Amino acid sequence: MRKEKVKAIIFGVGTMGGHAVKYMLDHGVEIVGAVGRKRNIGKDIGEIIGREPIGVLLENDVDAVLARVGAEADVALLTTESALEQVYLLATKCIEKRINVITIAEEAFYPWVSAPELADKLDAECKKYGVTFYASGIQDIFWSCLCTDLAAANNNISKIKSINFLPLEYMGPVVVDELYLGKTVEEYKALTVGAKSEDDPLARVSLTAIHANSKVMGLTTTSEKVSVEPILAVEDMPQPQWDMTIKKGTLNGLQIICEVQTKENITWESTLIFKVRKDESERTSIEWIIEGDPNLHLIVDDMNGDITTTTSPVNRIPDVINADPGYKTIVDLPKPIYRAFPMHTYIKE
User: Fold this and answer.
1) 174 and 235 housed in the same domain
2) CA distance from start to end of the chain
3) β-pairing verdict for 156-167 and 75-78
4) Residue 169 has what pLDDT?
5) Residues in contact with 190: Cβ distance below 8 Å, sequence separation at least 6, in sequence order
6) How far from chain centre, in Å, is Cα 118?
């Protein structure tokens, strides 16, 4: 058991990153650096999350922070972006400083279908510098472990279905462009003309979970089909966190349906709903339906997505530090667990 505290750098201290800071501090992690974009630069991150100052200011110069504290950091937690390409450069900079990296970028959960070249490059870099890269978040528990654990109770399976509702309003401003929020249907069609549904970044997010789960279960995927449909606002929806109002009749989300066939004659069907809510009666939820012997049905009707997106990667810190160097996925690491004790007590010497 390690005696020294785990030392971390946090990238992004918005809604998600703020939660991550709280949970790391609660579990004995020492934060040695913090990087943001614009808001709260120069402010102590303890104050940003509503606590006492901890002596670490939020900065906007990645290279300066890595030069100053990179040598002492064990792990970097990246709480921005969704695509592997978007976090690749920052992850590489951390890896070259011999810092383990955990990201909440959904595509990074299992990218060997959508971005294999980038995944292979990161894998090689990690092995060169002796560190580990891993993606966690709601996908770790709700998109993967719930499904594969439930399937273990079956004698046979013909179809595995999921329905996942993810409200957008607690997410960062990046989702405004990613989901075309506030665009008219005509503008949306013009911006996506000629694009294949399976190439949509959020479709790739859904597909990564299916392919990861297939790998965990030893299944071989053979084909996939994707559809993406806009969801329209039924009334004007002010969104002060993004300094905008989503007008009635414009996009306030997307619905993505993915169907994947396997060699073993098991069909995956995933419905992913990203939407700005009218009110909080619509909660972050996921539903798993397994058709087979027996038929099984599991509903988590409040995932607390803004919280569990960051509790999961924080709880993964010991697994990532303990892992062999390389780009690791849910296929490689132990099942995630709750950490009752300080993170450093789980680190192998």
Assistant:
1) yes
2) 6
3) unpaired
4) 87
5) none
6) 17
User: What total number of domains does the chain contain?
Assistant: 2
* Of 216, 227, 228, nearest in space to 266 by CA: 216
Q: List, for residues 196-230, the tens digit of each pLDDT value.
A: 877 777 788 889 999 999 999 999 999 999 999 99
* pTM metric for this prediction: 0.91
Residue 44 pLDDT grade (very low, low, confident, very high; cuts 50, 70, 90): very high
Residue 314 CA to residue 324 CA, distance in Å, equals 18
- Euclidean distance between CA atoms 88 and 93, whole angstroms: 9
> What is the average per-residue pLDDT within 305-317?
94
Is 56:33 a contact under the CB 8 Å cutoff? yes
Q: Are 308 and 142 in contact (CB under 8 A)?
A: yes
Say yes or no: 53 and 175 in one domain.
Answer: no
11 and 75, same domain (yes or no)? yes
236, pLDDT greater than 90: yes
Does residue 243 lie in a domain region?
yes
Average pLDDT value for residue range 26-51? 96
CATH number for position 155? 3.30.360
Q: What are phi and psi of 24, to 5 degrees?
A: -65, -45
Strands lying side by side in the sheet with 75-78: 58-59, 30-35, 7-11, 75-78, 100-103, 132-135, 326-327
Q: Does one domain contain both 165 and 90?
A: no
Q: Is the dihedral of CA 296, 301, 305, 307 positive or negative?
A: negative
Residue 1 inside a domain? The answer is no
292 and 196, same structural domain? yes
Say if residue 127 is in the same domain as residue 163.
Answer: no
Q: What is the pLDDT of residue 195?
A: 81
Domain extent for 295: 139-304
